Amino acid sequence: MAPHAKKFKNLINGKWLDSSSRKTIKSLNPADTSDVIGIVPMSSKDDVDAAVKSARKAFNPWRLTPAPKRGEIIFRAAELLLKNKDALGRLVTREMGKILKEGMGDVQEAVDMAYYMAGEGRRLSGETIPSELPSKDCRSVRVPIGAFALITPWNFPVAIPAWKIFPALVSGNTVVFKPSSYTPVCATRLVELITKAGVPDGVLNLVHGSGEETGDYLSTHPGIDGVSFTGSSPVGERLARACQPLGKEVSCEMGGKNPIIVMDDARLDLAVEGALWGSFGTAGQRCTAASRIIVHRRVYSRFLDMFARAAKKLKLGDGLEKTTDVGPLVNFQQMEKVLDYIETGKEEGARLVCGGRRAVKGGLKKGFFIEPTVFADVKPWMRIAREEIFGPVTSVIMAKDIEDAIAIANDSEYGLSSSIYTRDVRNSAVAERDLDSGIVYVNAPTIGAEIQLPFGGVKKSGLGHREAGGRGGALDMFTRWKVIYRDFSDRLQKAQMT
Ligand code: NAP
After folding, report:
1. Best mutation site among 228, 230, 257, 285 for ligand 1, i.e. most ligand atoms within 8 A of its Cβ?
2. What is the mean pLDDT of residues 140-168?
3. Is the pTM of this model over 0.85?
4. Nearest to 178, CA basis, from 12, 5, 394
5. Which of 131, 234, 249, 424 could pair with 226 in a Cys bridge, judged by C-beta atoms 3.0 to 4.6 Å apart?
6. pLDDT at position 349, please?
């Protein structure tokens, strides 16, 4: 037990409160479970009711606050996040497990999003369109939707909440945020900083708790107008089915089974480096992780040999140590799930060329570590090639030519991110045109999205609007269009009847 573990609270209407349930959730360091990161409330229905009530009450004054003023508050949040990047980045590593460079990157994404959305406070533009009638003008404006429930996973414990909170707030919505119960302390620190930046009471509320209870009750709450969810496809699809008939705006960013195609004309050293980062960065716990490497038959053996040799050299360990390449899985259940998939791969007849076991030597048994694992000769029908594993396990599949490689890549229920390594302009153009995913990379792995472009996928990977910046990004998620016709002719004019 951890007698001195720090206790954290919910934020409701500007006050930090315990739950009326008196129940709690303990957050542990996945690299060393004797390190308790903190204890947070397990919220009751009453807590959720109070948070939703507070968000509803705050909506009108916040909606009427000029958007540039809302943007200024978000700008201050960006500055505070930057000032606290080091401490927050270390906390991400301790609570989620990713290596420190990635922990810092997680916070940097939040900083980038805050600066970007602060600028939207002075844009949020619609269109002015000429009227067919004299002395009449027509324009479209973005209006906020209301009180939003934001539900987020553990793999980007600062970045993903920031991707939702900042666009929601700059657009004039209020928020009830339920973070993952595996990374609640990161979420609390993020909310503390945003609150310090000057967000008025009730505009941003935080309720901790489990998905099945708190998340489910919050997302279907009658006081909630919109839900933005990121997490697994089964949970997202269930949530959308429950919320859509209730008339709520719903957007879900979900899982992936992302392919990298390696053509026979590719620079193989670059492709190996990209496949390593794509497969084993964040221990494979990214929605955009490369879990299928589809390799042209002419370079298959050479690529596999180079890839497996490089994977064997990756060093597992605590993400806070400078020499660590790959950190732990986030929790025991996730580790067990990944080990089960490794057994499935063996039973299905795939060839295990490296890894495949829990790593326990050198103090690693205090955490949830799995060796970087490569399966070769994987067939597209195998479960390890079709289902999202969300761990350091990747499947190498042989392809005959570019058409065959693209057909294998697209033969998936998912469609988030895909990539091709090639130096042939035709191969690149065909892949850009025909890969069926929300994001396509050329000569880069499937991970590495930038915040100023829309982020999201097709098929089981995404539902509703895209996240992040750019045309068709998060502002579409958090606003509705309103069209205004203003007639100043002082007479009744009838459209289509002149
Ligand atoms: P998850 O189990 O689906 O949980 C995501 C969030 O939903 C958590 O806050 C969870 O709470 C909550 N939740 C669970 N059941 C719920 C319910 N019935 N009603 C409402 N909320 C519920 O996913 P995860 O394991 O945290 O994250 C990994 C998954 O996220 C992977 O599939 C990954 O691909 C996906 N992901 C997608 C993207 C993207 O942008 N496409 C980005 C990152 C991750 P608890 O934590 O308490 O269970």
Report:
1. 230
2. 98
3. yes
4. 12
5. 249
6. 97
